[in-house]
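FAQ: What does a ligand-bound record look like?

Like this one, built around iron/sulfur cluster:
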Amino acid sequence: MHLKEILKYRAVPLEGVYLCLTRKCALSCEHCSTYSHPLANESPRSKELVQFVESFNESIAPKILFLTGGEPLMLPKLVSKLTDIAHFAGSRVVCITGLFFASIENGSKLLNEIKNIDHLMISIDIFHEKQIGRNAIFKMLHKIRKLGIDISISTVGFGKDDLYLKDLIKYVRTEFEDQVPLFVNSINPVGRAKSFYSDIQSGPIALSSNESEIEGCKMMAWPVVAFDGTIVTCCNESVIDEDRPDHLILGHIRDTNWEAVRKKVTEDVILKAIRSVGPKYISRRFAPERACNGYCNTCKSLDTIQGIRQNITPWIQTPGMKILDDYISSYYYDKIIFNISPFSELISIGLDVNTIHKNDNLKEE
Ligand code: SF4
Ligand code: SF4
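The answer part, i.e. the structure of the complex:
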C-alpha cells in the first residue's frame, strides 16, 4: 500500500481510525508530540483494543487502521493480532515506527511479528538520528522491503531551506533508487517541541492557514483512540491528552463499538457543523459577542455557548446545510489536504500504477 493511497483518504470522514497503542517508546526524541519515553506506561487495555477492532465486522469497516504511539512496535504481538483482525474486516493496516530496533542486536527478529502489516511509516529526522545512526536505519529498511512491506519516510524539519531535510531527501532518493516516498512536514509546537519552538516559527510549511471564516475542520475525519482508551474526534494533541470537552468525545473502547462511533460522527449536530463550516463560523454565528481564540481553541469551547445544541439543530437540518455536509464528506476523496509544498511531489515517489493495487480492494469501491 503506497503512501499516497493512505493520504488520499486522510480527510474523508471515517475512512480511517487511529489507535494510540502505547505512550511507551524506546527513544526519547526532543520534539516528541506525545511526550513518549522508555518509562511511559500509559496504554489502552489490549483486550478492549481487540474488542474494538473486532467490531469493524459489525459495521462498515474503516479502510485504514492506523497504529500509532509512542512506539506501537513495543507491542509487536498486539500489532500482529490487531492487523489480522482488521484484515478480516477488510481494513488495511498502517503502523508508524521510530525503528528503535534498528540499533539492537538481533532487532530484525521483530520483523517476524509484523510481516502482515500493509504499510510501515518510518519516522526519521534530526532528533531520531541523534539516537539511531542513519546506516543502521537504512540497513533495517532494506530488510523490511525484502519482506514485501511497503514503506515510507515521515520526516519533519524547519522549512524548505532546512539543510538536514535536503540532505535526508537526497540520501533516501539515492539509497532506494526513487522507490520510497517521503512525507515532509514542519515541526509543530506541540508536546516536547513546545519547549524550543513557537507558533510563529512553524510558518513555512505548516498545515493550511486559511484565514477565511468558513473553513470546515479537515482533521476531524479520522477518530482517535487515545492512550486511556477514550475515543476522540481528532488528532489534536491537547484533545487526545488533556483538554477534552464532551462534544469532542465519541466514547470509550470498553463500551463503544465502531458502529456507535460512525453513528455519532455522522449524526451529531455539533460535529457536523464543525466538519462543514468550522468552529470560527459557528462561534461567530451563535455567540457573536465572543472574541476568536484560535481555530482549535474556539472548537474546544463551543459547548460553553449557551443553548448551542438546541440552536444548531434546526440550522444544521436545513436542506442547504445537508447538501454542504454531503458535499464535504465526498469532496476530499482523492485530495491530499496537506500543504507541504515544496515537498509535495515526494509523496508520489515509487508510485507504480501497475502495482499499487496489489491486494487492493479499494479499487472497486
Ligand atoms: S520515536 Fe516517535 S514516539 Fe518515540 S520519542 Fe521519538 S517522536 Fe516520540
Ligand atoms: S479541536 Fe476541533 S477544530 Fe481542532 S482539529 Fe479537533 S475537531 Fe478540528
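Follow-up question: can I read anything off the structure? Yes, for example: The radius of gyration is 20 Å.
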